[in-house]
Write a structure and sequence with these properties.
This protein has 20 helices and 22 strands. By secondary structure, it is α+β, with helices and mostly antiparallel strands. Among the domains are: 78 residues, Calcium-transporting ATPase, cytoplasmic transduction domain A, CATH 2.70.150.10; 144 residues, 3-Layer(aba) Sandwich (Rossmann fold); 113 residues, Calcium-transporting ATPase, cytoplasmic domain N.
Amino acid sequence: MTKKQKKILIRIIISAALLLFLHFVPSTGNRILDLAIFMVPYLIVGWDIVLNAFKKIFKGRLFDEEFLMMIATVGAFIVGEYPEATAVMLFYQVGELFQGIAVGRSRKSISDMMDICPDTAVVIRNGEEETVDPFEVEQGETLLIRPGEKVPIDGVITEGATSLNMSALTGESLPVEKNTGDSIYSGSINLTDVIKVETTAAYEDSTVSKILELVENSTDKKAKTEKFITKFSRIYTPCVVVLAVLIILICSLFTDMGVKESIYRGLIFLVVSCPCALVVSVPLSFFGGIGAASRKGILIKGSNFMETLSNVDTMVFDKTGTITKGNFAVDAIHPREVSADELIDIAALAESRSNHPVAESIVEAHGKHIAKDRLGEVSEIAGKGIRAVIDGKTYYVGNGKFMEEVGADYHECHLPGTVVHVSTGNLYLGHIVINDEIKADSAEAMEKIRQAGVKKTIMLTGDNSKVAEIVAKTVGVDSFIAGLLPDKKVSELEKILGNGRVVAFVGDGINDAPVLTRADIGIAMGALGSDAAIEAADIVLMNDSLGLIPSALKIARKTLRIVKENIVFSLAVKIGILILGALGLVGMRVAIFGDVGVLVLAILNSLRAMRVPR
């Protein structure tokens, strides 16, 4: 509880004690004296509300909840309902206190996650340790990070080995072992040993800075429900003020009810009509849901994306690096016309300039020194392969489509996996079979995704149909589309979108930016340190586990369920009391419950969104 909230609580206690005392003290019989007496607890608890309401009146900002409370309580004083006037203001402040505490708790859940960067960094300059602000550290400088300290900036370990706590980034509580040469990310906590780190980015370009910016901006992107409630309250509040005036006029002019009783009914209508339960609880629910997700390593860029995620019924997955590990390894070498060593030598030379995982696996399987002076012109043909000049001779290394294009008499392999064919002109030299291991949790995660309400799962891949079929059957994907060039993934996704579905695309965030952007919801996984992922995706999973997706779906659907509960409950209670109040069947005490009671209950319900599902 903040100092301001503690002061409000003290004022509430003093005002409530005075009001309770006055309840047992008989009236003086003098209206002016009684008014003066009840004004004491009223002003103790509500002077700031009245002051703010007057300020807004002069600024032309009428019809908010403070204005409603002021005219309702002033009206109650005018008709001589002094205890009710004080009680309305007292309970309104109780509601405001609950609201402040709830918002504070929700903000704390995010600020705790955001407290992942140290205020200082120890940099080694001219052989001396110097403590500076992280903003002052430049790329390429060397940091000294001791056990228990947070990593301030992304970098590579140049000396030492340690364990890192990366839970603030990935949601995983188990330590991660890091050795010399490994990359580490800002926001991690060094657990065991002193390490030296060469920074690979400035602070403003580091992982922690991007995450903080993402979370801070998440509340700017409002859901349709939030926007509707905001517009609704702007129209609703002036309407109820007009209706309250009409109730007073109709009751006093067309019934035998007195003016005092007519005004009292109008005031009851005003008190219960305050829309603060909706205006507060809806954004609070979304804010709590975003905070809960962030503690799991799921960064949702705005409540609009959370609302869309809650309605997802179709989920499309990239294969490599998403369902599979993306760690390719050579399984078999099947030569023709040349030896196995010659075949892998040609393929490794051709692929040596590529950073594609398949190329890296071939180079690794070659395992020998690659004489790049043998290598001439190299051209990469998107979605097909590589044309390379080796020892003055042109070779083609790629998929079956590439072989067909150059007229090589190739054949597909009987083994499952990614097949890389090699030819020189139309002379087929053989092929290399490469496999990618399926992630251990992919099948379980796919089942949980279905349990979370996703009706259809689809896998898109550039790999061949044989490999795609094996992966799809193993993990339980409903259907797959194989052999796709990068630009074809977008067109296939558009066909899926065209069926009126709410579609989420899940990719590894490195080369899937166009598809992530095109889907209703783009989910980038394993995005730690990936600029492309953080920029292109709507939801960022900080580790590469598919198991976070069911959690994201559960959090989103739980949050939207709470939002709808608050809307239905608040409107139902308020409309009921509004009607009963207009008919004179309930008094001011029930009206106070209709406002403050509903607000408190809606806030308490909203706090459920902050709980992280197991």
